[in-house]
Design brief:
4 copies of one chain form a homotetramer. By secondary structure, the first copy, chain A, is α+β, with helices and mostly antiparallel strands. The first copy, chain A, is 39% helix and 19% strand. Chain A has a single domain (5-129), classed as 2-Layer Sandwich (Beta-Lactamase).
C-alpha cells in the first residue's frame, strides 16, 4: 500500500488551509511508503531553511514510523538514540513529521511541515495527516 | 521578481495535464529565482529515479537561464563545457528543464520534468512554462 | 528585493574595518535573498576553518531570517530545535550571522562572520549589516 | 609564499574591470596556495550556477598548477586523465581557471572565472592573474 498523488495533494491542501488559518507560512512535504517525495509546496514568504527541514521531517517520520518528536526525545544527550540525526543523510527529530495511515491503519507515507514553532508545525502536519 | 506558489501550482497543473494527455507519468519540479524548490509532484507510477532528475533539471535551467538541453549540447566530449555536470552538486543537462518568465520577460524561476523520453519531458516542461 | 554586489561590498568593507579596529582576523561572507554567495573575503592569517563557518552563518541567518545565535539557543539539548544543524547541508547556529535589510525593512540577504570569539564575530557582522 | 587578501582584491578588481569592458557578468573567485578561498564576488545578474563553477575552476587550477583548460584536454574520453572531474569533490576542467604567480614566478594561488563563454571566462581570469 502506497499513498497516491491524489491523496498527497489532499494532505497538502488540508495542511495549507490549516497553515493559513493560524497565520503561518509553511513548507509542506509528503513522502510515500518508500520515503520518497511525492508532493511539496513552499508557501510565499516561508523560511528558505525550512524547505529541507520539512522534507527531512517527512522522511524521518516514515523511516521509523513514528512522529518525529518521539525520535527527538530519544536522541538527546544520554538518550538511547543519541545523535541518530547523523544517519540517513541527516534526520530532523523535532515535531512536525507524522506518519500517514490509510483506512486500514497501514502506514502509506508521511507528512513533514516546517516554518513556524514546532507546535504550529505539528498542528499543521496533523491537519494534513488526518485529511484522508 | 520571484515566482509565487500560486504561479508554480498553475505550472504544475498544466504540466500534469500535458503529461496525462500524452500518456506519460512524470516528476514535475518548480524552483524560484534563487533556484530553491517551490512545488513538486510525482505522478503515480513515475520513475523513482526521475524525482532527483526533475529537481536538478529545474535548478540547472535557472542556474544558467537556458533550457537544459542547450547546456547538454555544450557539455559533450570535446565541447566547451565538457563535464560541467560535476558542479553545483550535480547538474542534469539533457532536455526537460526550462526557465520560466513573467509577462515582462524576466526570469522568475524554472520548471524541470523527468519520467519519459527527453522529447516528452521537454514537451511537458514547455506546457508548464507557458502556462503563466 | 535582492542585495546588489555594490551593497555587499559596502558590507564587507565595513566589517573588515571593524575587524581591524578590534584586532581580529575574520572570514566575511555575504549571501543574497536566495541564500547564494555574493561576496567573500578571508583576511590574512584568519582561521582556515572559519571560511566554511562564515558562509554557513550567512546562509543560516537568511534561511530563518534571524540572527544565528537565536537559532542556537533553540537547538540546545532539550530545546525545541535540537540538532537542526543537520539540515540544509549543515547549519552554524552560534552568533556571527545576521540578516541584512534594505531601507524599507525587507530582508535582502545576510552576512556571516567567523574568526574570533562569537562576541567579536557578532560585533563584526553587526558592523557590516548596519553599513547600508 | 601565499597570496594576500590585498593581492586577491587587486585580482578581483582587475577581473571585474575586464568583465565590464567586454560586457559580461562574472563570478570571480581567488584561492590561495592551499586552494582555499580568499576572495569572491558575483556581479549583479551573473549566472547562479557559475558561482560554484568559478570556485571549482580556481581550485582546479591550483590543484594541478596549470590552466583548467589544459586539464580538460587530458580528461576527454580516451585521454590520460579521463573523468578526473570526479575527484576532489568535483573539478571543472574547461577554461577560466589560471594559477597566479608572484614576481619570482612562484605559484601563490589561482583565479577562477565563470559567467560567459569559456573564451571570455579565460580572458577575464587572465586579466586578473596578470594584475599583480
Amino acid at each position: 500500500m502506497n499513498i497516491t498523488l491524489a491523496q498527497a495533494e489532499k494532505l497538502v491542501a488540508a495542511a495549507k488551509e490549516k497553515a493559513t488559518a493560524i497565520d503561518t507560512k509553511m513548507n509542506i512535504a509528503v513522502v510515500d511508503a518508500g520515503a520518497n517525495l511525492v508532493a511539496f509546496v513552499r508557501m510565499d514568504g516561508a523560511w528558505l531553511g525550512s524547505l529541507d527541514i520539512s522534507i527531512k521531517k517527512a522522511k524521518t517520520a516514515r523511516f521509523f514510523d513514528m512522529n518525529t518528536g518521539i525520535v527527538g526525545e530519544l536522541s538527546q544527550p544520554g538518550g538511547s538514540l543519541y545523535n541518530i540525526e547523523h544517519s540517513n543523510g541527516g534526520l530532523i527529530t523535532f515535531p512536525g513529521g507524522i506518519p500517514v495511515k490509510n483506512a486500514d491503519g497501514e502506514i502509506i507515507g508521511a507528512i513533514g511541515v516546517s516554518g513556524s514553532s514546532v507546535e504550529n508545525d505539528h498542528a499543521v502536519a496533523g491537519a494534513g495527516a488526518s485529511a484522508l
